[in-house]
């Protein structure tokens, strides 16, 4: 116990803040709580519009993915191209459902929002992502009919294997990867690094064929617009098990350990204690 107290004392005396954690974690914590609180307290109008544009931005990434896939046949290159959509999400301040598994939870635990507000954020963002993506993919299919065969191929790959160990793990990884990507982007103020992280995210999630409920659904909607014989009821059956595993991956694999890591800061914030500001750095 004495060793722990000595370590915390040394940490406080050597860093830029008086917290028993690395300065970069303190900075990131303050940023995530602030942004999470901002997301939780959006008006209904702002929440709906932000979610709709999130679906449109994903559709933009899918359009880039289809163009590269059609030209090269490479899933990895196509996935990297999809990163354009993830970059648009970040720079345009729109929102993808699985981005909300870290920042707003930090804000709720820190006492800056309610669990009801978190549920509202999740439900509205997910529904509006799907609506925005559905509408945008109608335009994409009408504009680029030559992509229809590629679109059907990609969409079929997402649903063909059904429910099993492999697909469950792919859904877990998709949720954790997007959540980790959000955490990484929160740790940098560099637009260049944000772009690199977005391309890496697209490479991993789309290039490796992970199952992401919102993202894959927008691809599936596009294939349905293009004439694929797949019903909305069939889609709903697939969607109903993918989304919970996306949530489990993002919440348990990434968000929970991060909460444990910054628990002292969360409790201090919840008690209303001042957390000393650290000098900004690019973590």
TrEMBL record:
<feature type="compositionally biased region" description="Basic and acidic residues">
    <location>
        <begin position="1"/>
        <end position="11"/>
    </location>
</feature>
<feature type="region of interest" description="Disordered">
    <location>
        <begin position="1"/>
        <end position="21"/>
    </location>
</feature>
<dbReference type="InterPro" id="IPR000292">
    <property type="entry name" value="For/NO2_transpt"/>
</dbReference>
<keyword id="KW-0472">Membrane</keyword>
<feature type="transmembrane region" description="Helical">
    <location>
        <begin position="121"/>
        <end position="143"/>
    </location>
</feature>
<protein>
    <submittedName>
        <fullName>Formate/nitrite transporter family protein</fullName>
    </submittedName>
</protein>
<dbReference type="Pfam" id="PF01226">
    <property type="entry name" value="Form_Nir_trans"/>
</dbReference>
<feature type="transmembrane region" description="Helical">
    <location>
        <begin position="46"/>
        <end position="69"/>
    </location>
</feature>
<keyword id="KW-0812">Transmembrane</keyword>
<dbReference type="InterPro" id="IPR023271">
    <property type="entry name" value="Aquaporin-like"/>
</dbReference>
<keyword id="KW-1133">Transmembrane helix</keyword>
<feature type="transmembrane region" description="Helical">
    <location>
        <begin position="193"/>
        <end position="215"/>
    </location>
</feature>
<feature type="transmembrane region" description="Helical">
    <location>
        <begin position="163"/>
        <end position="181"/>
    </location>
</feature>
<feature type="transmembrane region" description="Helical">
    <location>
        <begin position="235"/>
        <end position="260"/>
    </location>
</feature>
